[in-house]
């Protein structure tokens, strides 16, 4: 079976071209268990999990086409996935990770998955984590554990793996009859890396905030909103309170979405994430919260229209095709470095929520689930929901808590209780200098 190995990578190009010293584009999912982790059982579970995902058993390779233009491929990687004891992530795409694009860590009561965003996104990582948790918990607690979650069937080794999991949607023909809905012009937005009201640090801090799922869902179900839309609005409101001068621009959150449903590839394993833009415009500032929530929901519905999502997907692919006019990977990386400043000027902050974890019967052994990601923004929120708790991981580059406090005050104003569980430096995996370290074939 092919699994796309040896073929030119397409959907992965955005992250492969951009990532480097300035931005690793790596993510970490951390499960906080109810008991200390058994390392031996975890290693067995990781090996079983590896057998279920042959299209993630890969290493990067570089080829040249007939015209001499370089491109990336995935090659077979039969080495085991690394399981490191300790909180420190191993370097990906290098010897520490057996050249894999993902690896695992465990310490105390925590299990972490580190992965390079070009390999997959939060949806794909959730699949891996569901399999891993099931395999671990059936060994540790209950051999009869069910793989049913009520929403999905947890994937396990021995499953029939269809091409819908590994075929790349970007390898299909572009549709030619799209009718995207017209979108309003994007306003100039506040850039927190240059316009923050406090000092901006190079180092990133992660603040993990917990909100009871019952409280959150009670609020959103009665307020014409959703968890991700609500948090995006509260973050915009928190920023606008600190930036009342409209001459600075407007706060605009980019909200990550899953493109798979619109593209008709719900099982695709690649990175299929895109973003919507949610600005708190001048005319909305004097409105009450309920009206703002309704408008934000409308913006989400409009931008997530199927044809708009499909058009955005192919615009990204066409942009990457343009970069390939530069024949070398290193040359493309240097050209795309300009995207860093473009991204910062196109949004103020980022919110990402994959959805409920749906860990099934194994969820009873999990307390919390956190997500961290290396992004270009001074303020990023990653949300997870597990075990009756929303885990809101806020990553900030600020020297003090000015923006954090303003954000938390928005929760107090709507009566949602929260607590700060932990604070620590952003912990994501570094990546090797793969453009220079891989031999071109």
CATH fold label of the largest domain:
Chloramphenicol Acetyltransferase
Number of spatially distinct domains: 2
The CATH class of the largest domain: Alpha Beta
Strand order of the largest sheet: 9-8-10-12-13-7-14
In DSSP terms (H or I, runs of 4 or more residues), the helix count works out at 14
Mean pLDDT metric = 95
Termini gap: 22 Å
Helix and strand run: HEHEEEEEHHHEHHEHEHHHHEEEEHEH
State the assembly state of the protein chains. single chain
Low-confidence stretches: none
In the CATH hierarchy, what is the architecture of the largest domain at level 2?
2-Layer Sandwich
**Overall morphology:** globular
Annotate the secondary structure layout.
Blueprint: H1 13-18, E1 26-33, H2 39-52, E2 58-64, E3 70-76, E4 83-85, E5 102-107, E6 110-116, H3 122-140, H4 163-166, H5 192-195, E7 200-212, H6 213-221, H7 227-242, E8 252-258, H8 260-263, E9 273-279, H9 289-303, H10 306-323, H11 329-336, H12 338-346, E10 349-356, E11 366-373, E12 379-386, E13 389-398, H13 402-413, E14 419-425, H14 434-437
